Amino acid sequence: MGLLEIEHITQWFGGLLALADFNLSLEARELVAIIGPNGAGKTTVFNVVTGVYRPKGGSIAIDGRHVVGLAPNRITSLGIARTFQNVRLFKDLSVLDNVRIAGYGQAGYGPMAALFQGGLCKQEENTIVEKSMELLSLFHLDASADELARNLPYGLQRRLEIARALATRPRILLLDEPAAGMNPGEVGQLIELIGWVQKAFDVAILLIEHQMQLVMNLCERIIVLDFGKTIAEGKPDEIRSNKRVLEAYLGEDQVT
Amino acid sequence: MIYVLQQLLNALQLGSIYALIALGYTMVYGILTMINFAHGDLFMVGSFLCFLCVALLGLPFIPTLMLSMVGTAFLGVTIERLAYKPLRQAPRVSAIITALGVGLFLENFTLAINPYPKHIPNFVPTTTWVIGNISISSLQIIIIALSLALMILLDLIVRRTMVGMAMRAISFDKTVVPLMGVPVDFVISVTFAIGTSLGGVAGVLYAVAYPVIDPYMGIMVGWKAFISAVVGGIGNIRGAMIGAYILGSVEILVVAFFPSTYRDFVAFALLLVLLIFRPYGVLGKPMVQKV
Amino acid sequence: MIARLVAALNRRSVRLSLLVLGFAFSFIVPATGILDEYVQLVLMYIGINIILAVSLNLVNGYMGEFSVGHAGFMAVGAYVSSLLTVVAFPAGSGPWLFPLAVLAGGTGAALIGLVVAFPSFKTRGDYLAIVTLAFLMIVKSGIENINFLGGPRGFLGMEKLTTLPWVFFWTALSIWAIRNLVYSRFGRGILSIREDEIAAELSGVDTRRVKIIAFVVSSFFAGVGGALFAHLLQFINPRVFDIIKSTDILIMVYLGGVGSLGGSILGAVIYTFLLEVLRPLGIWRMVLMPLVLVFLMIYRPKGIMGLREFSWFVPSRDLFGARRWRKEREEANGPS
Fold it and tell me: Is residue A159 domain-shared with residue A126, that is, in the same domain?
């Protein structure tokens, strides 16, 4: 039984079939990529897994626990976190606050303690600041802790988003096009970062990406989607030379 | 049964007036995503302009209507240029609060120069016909027919003219449209002019139907018209019309069957229920958030 | 190290001494009559308006909604507390049991606030504004139709139990409690909903619970404001708690600056003060005041304070937390 078991997921948007019988099994510490042309349904997979959409059919289990139908924040607390295609930071909040938000689920005090600043509240809040600053320093973001998130350069914003996701201490990390808008040098740094994150935080990583350099260098396994259907699955070398994959990306005429 | 039909006629009358005002709200919202809370007070100004024309100048119906329309349109465009235009880039709420301020200004200014409610002398020749057991007054016919005619005209303008197309384009994407050579400021002014003049017409028709007017009359009517626009799906012109007739009907029918003090209570409770089942209004579409 | 301690002590001692001074002042003034009755009345109105503005800011400013129903919660607080002091409490016990009446008013309002929270789960923005408007109308209409509450004629008979010390106490309590909430995990949750609700959910924030807390706390203090108001005016009727009242509170919040406690306080003070100062103008005061408001909105669209906050309200943990941590780590690593 894998850490993440996705079985027979079907998702419709109006009359459009976004995902048809999608299956994926993820073990602890694996690094798997989902690739495919635009509109293939890759982000929909992430949205269904994290509970943003409810699939029409199929089941999803995290560590054996079925999660379809649960509220997104419940699913997050079961150990899964994600980043977004377009960076979705809390722009008008500070870098530190962005990471502290994730501390919501880690603290145990209730609203009455919050209203009257009880001892437990103060203690736990101090712990949250500690932990958040430690996390930020691991990502070399501690110097800008008080900076507003909207003022960070794009590359640092992406890094912050990953840090925020890791603040919820997930066992599964979903990264949606983390290299979007980056030049080759930055992509190289990102490859190192993701590799380090996987080891340092002991997470399984599911990655959506278009940049083949990143995918081929990092991933143990690749799943290829096209129009909601899985058209190939295997190791990077297998995928690289798979005819159907090339057709999907380049068009049939180009391949023959 | 006859009673219900009679009340339905009253509902059509009230709904028509709400519709004319609701259209003004929805047009401005569609193009600027802004709730012009001063709109109800512009309706009130329309009524007072009608009073000026009739009681002080002794004009007949058509010139009164024309003058009120032009007067309110002019006022609307001026307000837009002076108070709303500077806030187009500001957070939405600032414009809303400014609109509330403009509304307060209009109400109290009118009150300051005119402390007592005014009675408008009858200036529309009225005849009443009796069909079956239902009495229909020519006043009701005028109100309903004129409103419907204007609504159809508006629909045509929005769908068939260049200006209308520009309005719809701006409501979809405000930033790109100027890059296509569309004079955005002009189109916005036209939108305000049309929307406010419809409110002015509503003011005249209201004065004809319920001849006592006061400076605070725009507040409740304005909020109710706003609710109509939302119930129908804010930003949607046809929705505004549907919403207005729904609200008018609910109000009239509630008074028909319950003590009149329950009118607002039941009307708003029903509206709440409707919003629970159709959270985005009858014709509204939820803004699909891409995640 | 010593300097840091002194700085922290300074902040806390300044805050505390101001509180003590203010409280003492609120007793001395009515007893000695340094300020005349009219000024005392204005001060009490300012206090009540501060409570109303700060509580509305929780939902409208920090959570980014547009609730127009605040006057409705105020009405519930006013009527519940008045019923208690006039009908339920034994005669003469008013001054002693007044805080209970105020608490009851707040609790009644909070229950209504709880009901309003539920539509907010699925609905946001302008549609939620309509829902809050509907609630306001329903509360107002409801009161008008209940005869033992006086219906449209109103309810009277309250003793003037609202005094300057009480107003000071409740105002200070409201600001303190709401400030504590804002700087807790729930407050951050509220902010995250404003910024990006979906990202918040996916970061583990229980948005339903947070919304309930926001609405309940906000309406509780609105009810407190209503209770104090009722026992100052000694007469209440449904017309007082209509959309115009809600509009007044909205103006105070947005004028001062959304998402800023200091802003709400400033907005309440300036608005109340301006209204009193312009009183000699008679009816023209209400013509000038909106013009001033429009003018201010055009030149400071984010309100007077914008999104910034008075540093006195911000806990040291939020102001200095990051800096302190970096300093401690530097010291721990030793001179390199």
Answer: no
